Amino acid sequence: AAGHRGAVSIHSIESGRLVTVYRAHAANGRVLAFSPDGKLVITSGEYGRGPLEFVDVATGAHVRSLDGDPNSPFAVAYRPVGAEIATADFDRPIVIIWDLREGRPSRVLSGHTRPIYALAYSADGALLASASQGGGVIVWDGATGARLLTLPRTDELTSSIVFSSDGRYLAVPVSKQVRIWDLSAIRRPQS
């Protein structure tokens, strides 16, 4: 878990005891995403403080930092294939795709008009979905960043999104309901 004073603490599920603590940020931190193999977790400082930190889950050891964006991401998604992550922050309605091999942004996806609160890749990495504060959801080609679909907008906060394991459906909680969108009609990119 991430939290108070930027600490990342790793606990045993069997005993509930603390295994290790890693100080990732000077300010309060958040856990944002696990790597596809589950070995790393990405943390971010709260409210724009500090770079993304990659932490080894087993040991709590700092693996790397990723800096280059003045804002600290509020949402992060690890692409299941390749070496990319997608980030979004409070202040700008854009998605930034980072090339982890190069350690820098490779492209910026524009299309939202309000801050983005949630990001999710499909299990095969072919699709990326982003959800904004005003309920807008965009589905992007996971490899190229091309906009494939914009779902009907609501005025509700959309704070999470999730793909089904086969990538056919996208679940979007809106107000007091969950809307499940069938994405089978869109042309699927090849991953």
In short:
The chain has 191 residues and is mostly beta strands. It is built from no helices and 17 strands.
Pick out its properties.
191 residues, mainly beta, four-stranded antiparallel sheet, 17 strands, 48% strand, globular
What does this structure look like?
The structure is a single chain. By secondary structure, the chain is mainly beta. The protein has strands spanning 7-11, 18-23, 29-34, 40-45, 52-56, 62-66, 75-78, 84-88, 94-99, 104-110, 116-121, 127-132, 137-141, 147-151, 162-163, 169-174, 177-182. The strands form five sheets. It has a four-stranded antiparallel beta sheet with strand order 3-4-5-6, with no helix packed on it. A four-stranded antiparallel beta sheet has the order 7-8-9-10, with no helix packed on it. A hairpin with a 2-residue loop joins strand 16 and strand 17 (177-182).
Radius of gyration: 17 Å
Which quaternary structure do these chains form? single chain
Helix content: under 10%
Tally of DSSP helical segments: 0
Distance between the termini: 32 Å
